[in-house]
Amino acid sequence: MTKKSTPPESEVSAQEKILDAARAEFIAKGFKSARMQAIAKSAGVNHALLHYYFRSKEKLYDAAVRETVRTVWSGLQRELQSVPTESDFETLILTLLKTHARILSRHPDFPLFFIRGILEDGGKSFPAALAEILESFGEVPRRVNQALIAEIKAGRLRPIEPVHFWLNLVGMVISGFMASNFAKRLGPASPLARIKFTEKFFLERAEMATTTLLRSLRP
């Protein structure tokens, strides 16, 4: 059986720089107006190397989408695996939100990239990437849904459809990161300019979101 070779570290680094530059370009200009030449320049690589790795703007966009989704979900699964199965529901949700906060603190452009992508391409790329990646990292929603149903059956939470729970959860987390992106674009005159959008801020948001969400669901 032939063993799959691992790309040299320099190649991985070049591809990461290209994907970071691509996300920034797609956020700033959208898919249609984004230019491969601008992405190559921002990444510090020549145009030929960019095409060698990704061939076309469509393939580069798809790769950026998949890497974005994979980074978030693999991180969530890794952290949830460290939470003992006997842990209470609040611990599980707090771990999920704090991990999400840490990941997005390191990649603050992810939420804007996600939202712009959904609005621009009609939601084709992100759901397709998410569906494929969940085949590998599907333990995250499965475990949370199972724990949610168990809490409802035990009478500790009021009945709620899992989809509404997830929408509330994601909305509470994403709102803080969207505010940080708005603050950058609105400038120093904005009331948001006074807020320091640090990892500490987002971890505090995770704790508040957990408390608020669970309090709203308790009988």
Would you write up a description of this structure?
Helix 1 (9-33) crosses helix 4 and helix 4 (57-80) runs antiparallel to helix 5. The protein has two domains: 10-55, Homeodomain-like (Arc Repressor Mutant, subunit A), CATH 1.10.10.60; 62-217, Tetracycline Repressor, domain 2, CATH 1.10.357. The protein is built from ten helices and no strands. It is globular and about 60 Å long. The relative contact order is 0.11. The mean pLDDT is 83. It has helices spanning 9-33, 36-43, 47-54, 57-80, 89-106, 110-120, 125-137, 139-153, 162-186, 199-217. With 219 residues, it is mostly helical.
Q: Helix proportion of residues, in percent?
A: over 70%
For the secondary structure, the number of strands is 0
CATH architecture assignment of the largest domain? Orthogonal Bundle
Cα-to-Cα separation, first versus last residue: 57 Å
Strand content: under 5%
Question: What is the number of helices?
Answer: 10
Specify Rg, calculated over alpha carbons.
19 Å
Brief rundown of the structure:
The chain is mainly α.
Identify the notable features of this structure and list them briefly.
219 residues, Tetracycline Repressor, domain 2, mainly alpha, Arc Repressor Mutant, subunit A, 2 domains
Describe the secondary-structure layout.
Elements: H1 9-33, H2 36-43, H3 47-54, H4 57-80, H5 89-106, H6 110-120, H7 125-137, H8 139-153, H9 162-186, H10 199-217
